[in-house]
Design goal:
Layout (H helix, E strand, L loop, with lengths): L9 H7 L1 H10 L5 H9 L6 E5 L7 H7 L3 E6 L2 H10 L4 E4 L11 E6 L8 H13 L1 E11 L4 E7 L2 E7 L2 H10 L2 E7 L9 E7 L2
Parallel strand pairs: 1-2, 1-4, 2-3, 4-5
Antiparallel strand pairs: 5-9, 6-7, 8-9
Protein name: Class I SAM-dependent methyltransferase
Organism: Steroidobacter gossypii
Keywords: Methyltransferase, S-adenosyl-L-methionine, Transferase
C-alpha cells in the first residue's frame, strides 16, 4: 500500500469507511469534554452552533444537542450525514464540502473539531473567510490543528489519511486578520489527545 495521500482523498475515505469511523468514534473516550465544557460555558442557552465536519454526530453534536443548543451539522460524507439524520431528526444536517460552504446565515458559535486539519494549507487559509461569513457578532470559534507547519500522513482502515497544519503564528495571524481574538489556546494538549486546540471569539 502506498503511503501517498492528498486532501482530495478525504471525502472518499470517509464515505467508504463511514461505519467503521462511526463505531470507532463512538467508542472513544470523550477527550473533548474539557474543551467542550469551556466552549459551552461561554454560550447563551439555546445558542446556534454550526458543526463543520460533524461526522456521524457523535460525540460533539450529541454533547451540544443534549445541552439544548441548536446544532446545524455539515459533512461531505453522505453515509455519515445519514447517521446524523437518524439519530437527531430534530436538527438540520447538510451534505457539503466545507471548502465551499455558503449557508447564507450566521451562528452564535462554530466548531471544526478534527476537520480543518484534513485540508491543504491553501484551503485551510481559505476557511477563515468562510468562518467569518458564518459568524454572528461575538461568535465563538473552536477548532483543532497541528502545532507546526507541515504535512503528516496517518492511516485509517489500511488507507493513508492526510493531515496538514500551518504554524501557530500563522493561525494567530489568520484569526486576527478576520476579526477573531484568541480566548484560549493549547499546544499538544496532553488531556486532549495531543491536539493543538484554539478557542477564539469574533470581535464585536
Amino acid at each position: 500500500m502506498s503511503d501517498a495521500a492528498n486532501p482530495e482523498d478525504i471525502v472518499g475515505l470517509y464515505q467508504r469507511h463511514a461505519d467503521a469511523w462511526d463505531r470507532d468514534r463512538r467508542a472513544d473516550p470523550v477527550i473533548e469534554q474539557g474543551w467542550m465544557d469551556r466552549f459551552t460555558a461561554l454560550l447563551q442557552p439555546g445558542a446556534s452552533v454550526l458543526d463543520i465536519g460533524c461526522g456521524s454526530g457523535q460525540p460533539i453534536a450529541k454533547y451540544l444537542i443534549e445541552r439544548g443548543y441548536d446544532v446545524v451539522g455539515v459533512d461531505s460524507s453522505p453515509p455519515l450525514i445519514k447517521k446524523c439524520c437518524a439519530r437527531f431528526p430534530g436538527n438540520r444536517w447538510i451534505i457539503a464540502d466545507m471548502r465551499a460552504l455558503a449557508l447564507h446565515r450566521t451562528f452564535d458559535a462554530l466548531i471544526a473539531w478534527n476537520s480543518l486539519f484534513h485540508l491543504s494549507h491553501e484551503h485551510q487559509r481559505a476557511m477563515f473567510p468562510i468562518f467569518r461569513c458564518h459568524a454572528s457578532p461575538g461568535a465563538l470559534l473552536l477548532f483543532t490543528t497541528g502545532s507546526d507547519h507541515g504535512v503528516a500522513i496517518g492511516w485509517y482502515q489500511g488507507e493513508p489519511l492526510y493531515h496538514a497544519s500551518l504554524s501557530s503564528e500563522e493561525y494567530r495571524t489568520l484569526l486576527d486578520s478576520h476579526g477573531f481574538s484568541v480566548v484560549a489556546h493549547s499546544e499538544d494538549d496532553p488531556d486532549c489527545g495531543g491536539h493543538a486546540v484554539w478557542l477564539a471569539r469574533l470581535k464585536q
